[in-house]
Design a protein that fits this description.
globular, mainly alpha, 16 helices
Length: 407
């Protein structure tokens, strides 16, 4: 299979998978209120529990999945992940129990390897100077899925809070079918390495990657950035419903707009920005923009102003592909899967902690007896975390080598 066709197949798979994720986000507050027969504040707390349980399993399994893909290949790992995620959506769509919904999130966390495996696939087929752009394509594909997913989820909400889950399952199984018949393998004997159980331990894998010069500080910086980022998936729907009384359809439109501009930046503008700024400056600019936009979301007095910030804030999404490229070039070719697994684990640590903290802060400041009514509190907290990440980034630049180490 040609390199270009391989890229198209991977991107299609990521788009369909992202649609499955995005399609359920607009209806999650309504489903939780339905299952628990409660108000938005308590539903937000349950949303945090579900997000964190997903992330716990993602953290525990992220390094293992990355190492498995280095040993057995990207294709089988990706296919198993897509199939199990499809089953997960079916479980969530059928259940009338919050505890079965929690079990579904645990299963989903174990199998959540799609984007990291796709990134490892891209690393396999990319030249060093192409990596930031190709990692950007993965992010753009995810953004396209987020354009289509929340829009569809908002429309399907008219048929009840369960309908989006069954459509998400169908999308996952469709993605599985596309990958099964059209996706080639990129791991060959040149880069295949033996499976080492000790490196499937997420803590040891983090320590191993962190031993490369500068990468330890970068991983901590990424953790703080991800802690801030998870304010969006964990509280965005609740925030918009509470502060501006938006419907699920309006929330879906905002997610779709968010996804559109992410796709525009990571799929198009990044090809002009990163080659001119370089990976390091691109990460720096992206982090500054992200910090400012996060605080801006919390300050807006009217809902329509959200749409003014989204195009500007989306420029910060040059950060992720540039950072992934920077770190990918700092480790050998036969460790790309392990690196992506570690990056998944870092994101999972943030996803364990952040939703609980963000939804708790939202719940606290929106309760009737709150000392001050402040539904924007999670976004201000996220702004502080981004500033800490910025300081760590500046420190890492003094340690990170400019050339990739020899194998």
């Amino acid at each position: 299979m040609s390199k270009k066709l391989s890229i198209y197949i991977v991107l299609i798979t990521v788009v369909i998978d992202a649609m499955g994720i995005g399609i359920i986000m607009p209806v999650m507050p309504d489903l939780l209120r339905e299952l628990r027969n409660t108000d938005l504040s308590e539903a937000a707390l349950w949303g945090g529990v579900l997000s964190s349980s997903f992330a716990v399993m993602q953290f525990m399994c992220g390094a293992a999945v990355g190492n498995l893909s280095d040993r057995y290949g990207r294709r089988p790992v990706l296919l198993v992940s897509l199939f199990v995620v499809g089953v997960d959506y079916v479980i969530m769509g059928l259940t009338n129990s919050i505890w079965i919904l929690l079990l579904g999130r645990i299963i989903g966390g174990i199998a959540s390897a799609t984007q990291s495996t796709a990134s490892a696939y891209m690393a396999d087929i990319s030249k060093p100077e192409e990596k930031a752009q190709n990692f950007g394509l993965v992010g753009a594909a995810f953004g396209v899925g987020f354009i289509m997913g929340p829009l569809l989820g908002g429309l399907l909400s008219e048929f009840g809070s369960r309908a989006p889950f069954f459509v998400a399952a169908a999308l996952s199984f469709l993605s599985f079918s596309v990958g099964y018949f059209a996706l080639s393998e990129t791991v060959d004997d040149k880069i295949r390495r033996p499976l080492e159980l000790r490196r499937m331990n997420p803590f040891k894998a983090l320590r191993h990657i962190g031993m490369f010069d500068g990468l330890g500080v970068l991983l901590i910086m990424l953790l703080f950035h991800q802690l801030a980022f998870f304010v969006y998936p964990s509280t965005w729907s609740f925030f918009l419903q509470e502060k501006f009384v938006w419907t699920a359809r309006q929330v879906g439109w905002s997610f779709a707009t968010f996804g559109f501009f992410i796709a525009l930046v990571q799929g198009g503008l990044i090809r002009f920005i990163v080659p001119r700024l370089g990976d390091r400056k691109s990460v720096l600019v992206g982090l500054v923009v992200t910090a400012l936009s996060t605080v801006a979301y919390g300050l807006v007095p009217q809902g329509w102003m959200i749409y003014l910030i989204i195009p500007l804030g989306s420029l910060g999404f040059i950060l992720t592909p540039a950072l992934t490229s920077l770190m990918s070039r700092a480790v050998p070719d036969n460790m790309q899967g392990e690196l992506q697994g570690v990056l998944t684990s870092v994101g999972a640590i943030a996803a364990i902690i952040s939703p609980l903290v963000m939804t708790a802060s939202f719940s606290y400041f929106t309760q009737p007896d709150a000392p001050v009514y402040l539904p924007s509190a999670p976004f201000f907290l996220a702004g502080v975390l981004e500033v800490i990440a910025l300081l760590l980034l500046l420190k890492s630049f003094r340690q990170l080598p400019k050339k990739k180490p020899a194998n």
